[in-house]
Amino acid sequence: MSSARVYQYPPCSTCRKAVKWLETRGLEFESLHIVEETPDAGTLLDIMKQSGLPPRSFFNTSGKRYRELGLKDRVGTMSAEEAAEILAGDGMLIKRPLYIKDKVVLVGFREAQWEANLKV
Protein backbone atom coordinates (compact mmCIF):
# COMPACT_ATOMS: atom_id res chain seq x y z
CA MET A 1 0.00 0.00 0.00
CA SER A 2 1.45 3.34 -1.00
CA SER A 3 1.64 6.44 1.14
CA ALA A 4 -0.99 9.14 0.68
CA ARG A 5 0.02 12.31 -1.14
CA VAL A 6 -1.63 15.61 -0.34
CA TYR A 7 -1.03 18.48 -2.73
CA GLN A 8 -1.75 21.67 -0.84
CA TYR A 9 -0.97 25.37 -0.68
CA PRO A 10 0.23 26.20 2.86
CA PRO A 11 -1.32 29.71 3.08
CA CYS A 12 -4.74 28.27 2.14
CA SER A 13 -7.00 27.96 5.19
CA THR A 14 -8.90 25.02 3.67
CA CYS A 15 -5.62 23.17 3.08
CA ARG A 16 -4.50 23.85 6.64
CA LYS A 17 -7.84 22.53 7.90
CA ALA A 18 -7.47 19.34 5.82
CA VAL A 19 -3.90 18.75 7.01
CA LYS A 20 -4.94 19.23 10.62
CA TRP A 21 -7.88 16.84 10.06
CA LEU A 22 -5.50 14.15 8.73
CA GLU A 23 -3.00 14.70 11.54
CA THR A 24 -5.58 14.53 14.34
CA ARG A 25 -6.69 11.15 12.97
CA GLY A 26 -3.14 9.84 12.83
CA LEU A 27 -3.24 9.36 9.06
CA GLU A 28 0.15 9.40 7.40
CA PHE A 29 0.68 11.41 4.25
CA GLU A 30 3.31 13.17 2.20
CA SER A 31 2.62 16.89 1.96
CA LEU A 32 3.47 18.47 -1.39
CA HIS A 33 3.40 22.23 -2.10
CA ILE A 34 1.04 22.49 -5.06
CA VAL A 35 2.89 25.47 -6.58
CA GLU A 36 6.47 24.31 -5.97
CA GLU A 37 5.74 20.65 -6.76
CA THR A 38 2.94 20.91 -9.31
CA PRO A 39 2.17 17.47 -10.76
CA ASP A 40 3.05 17.10 -14.44
CA ALA A 41 0.38 16.59 -17.09
CA GLY A 42 0.83 12.81 -17.19
CA THR A 43 0.45 12.52 -13.42
CA LEU A 44 -2.62 14.76 -13.46
CA LEU A 45 -4.16 12.72 -16.26
CA ASP A 46 -3.61 9.53 -14.25
CA ILE A 47 -5.18 11.17 -11.17
CA MET A 48 -8.18 12.32 -13.21
CA LYS A 49 -8.72 8.85 -14.67
CA GLN A 50 -8.33 7.23 -11.25
CA SER A 51 -10.89 9.61 -9.72
CA GLY A 52 -13.60 9.12 -12.34
CA LEU A 53 -14.39 12.83 -11.95
CA PRO A 54 -14.79 15.19 -14.91
CA PRO A 55 -11.71 17.35 -15.63
CA ARG A 56 -13.53 20.53 -14.54
CA SER A 57 -13.60 19.13 -10.96
CA PHE A 58 -9.85 19.71 -10.75
CA PHE A 59 -9.96 23.45 -11.46
CA ASN A 60 -9.81 26.04 -8.70
CA THR A 61 -12.72 28.02 -10.14
CA SER A 62 -12.57 30.67 -7.41
CA GLY A 63 -8.94 31.51 -8.14
CA LYS A 64 -7.71 34.71 -9.73
CA ARG A 65 -5.65 32.85 -12.34
CA TYR A 66 -8.73 30.88 -13.48
CA ARG A 67 -10.56 34.14 -14.16
CA GLU A 68 -7.53 35.78 -15.80
CA LEU A 69 -7.24 32.93 -18.29
CA GLY A 70 -10.97 33.00 -19.06
CA LEU A 71 -11.29 29.27 -18.41
CA LYS A 72 -14.93 29.42 -17.28
CA ASP A 73 -16.26 29.12 -20.83
CA ARG A 74 -13.70 26.51 -21.93
CA VAL A 75 -13.34 24.11 -19.02
CA GLY A 76 -16.60 22.24 -19.63
CA THR A 77 -15.67 21.25 -23.17
CA MET A 78 -11.95 20.50 -22.88
CA SER A 79 -10.54 17.00 -22.99
CA ALA A 80 -8.86 15.48 -19.95
CA GLU A 81 -5.54 15.77 -21.80
CA GLU A 82 -6.03 19.48 -22.46
CA ALA A 83 -7.13 20.08 -18.86
CA ALA A 84 -4.09 18.21 -17.52
CA GLU A 85 -1.75 20.33 -19.69
CA ILE A 86 -3.30 23.59 -18.48
CA LEU A 87 -3.32 22.52 -14.83
CA ALA A 88 0.28 21.31 -14.97
CA GLY A 89 1.31 24.78 -16.14
CA ASP A 90 0.16 26.52 -12.96
CA GLY A 91 -0.40 24.85 -9.59
CA MET A 92 -2.69 27.70 -8.51
CA LEU A 93 -5.23 26.47 -11.08
CA ILE A 94 -5.61 23.12 -9.30
CA LYS A 95 -8.41 22.77 -6.78
CA ARG A 96 -6.89 22.04 -3.43
CA PRO A 97 -6.19 20.17 -1.32
CA LEU A 98 -5.77 17.18 -3.58
CA TYR A 99 -5.56 13.85 -1.71
CA ILE A 100 -4.35 10.73 -3.53
CA LYS A 101 -3.83 7.27 -2.08
CA ASP A 102 -4.21 4.02 -3.97
CA LYS A 103 -7.65 4.28 -5.62
CA VAL A 104 -8.89 7.22 -3.50
CA VAL A 105 -8.77 10.73 -4.98
CA LEU A 106 -10.33 13.61 -3.06
CA VAL A 107 -10.48 17.09 -4.55
CA GLY A 108 -11.10 19.97 -2.16
CA PHE A 109 -11.88 19.44 1.52
CA ARG A 110 -15.35 18.41 2.56
CA GLU A 111 -15.01 16.72 5.93
CA ALA A 112 -17.93 14.30 5.49
CA GLN A 113 -16.59 13.17 2.12
CA TRP A 114 -13.09 12.65 3.51
CA GLU A 115 -14.44 10.78 6.52
CA ALA A 116 -16.52 8.46 4.31
CA ASN A 117 -13.70 7.79 1.84
CA LEU A 118 -10.90 7.43 4.36
CA LYS A 119 -13.01 5.36 6.76
CA VAL A 120 -11.86 6.98 9.99
Report what the structure shows:
The chain has helices spanning 13-24, 41-51, 64-68, 80-88, 111-118; strands spanning 4-8, 29-33, 98-101, 104-107. Helix 2 (41-51) crosses helix 4. The model has no long low-confidence stretch (mean pLDDT 94). The protein has a single domain (4-118), classed as Glutaredoxin (3-Layer(aba) Sandwich). The chain is globular. It has 120 residues and is an alpha+beta fold.
Sheet with the most strands: spatial strand order: 2-1-3-4
Question: Quaternary arrangement of the chains shown?
Answer: single chain
Radius of gyration, in Å, reads 14 Å
What is the CA–CA distance across the termini? 17 Å
Structural class: alpha+beta
CATH class: Alpha Beta
**Strand elements, count:** 4
Helices and strands, in order, run as EHEHHHEEH
Q: How many distinct folded domains?
A: 1
- In the CATH scheme, what's the topology name? Glutaredoxin
**Strand residue percentage:** 15-25%
Average of the residue pLDDT scores? 94
The low-confidence runs, each spanning 5 or more residues with pLDDT under 50, are none
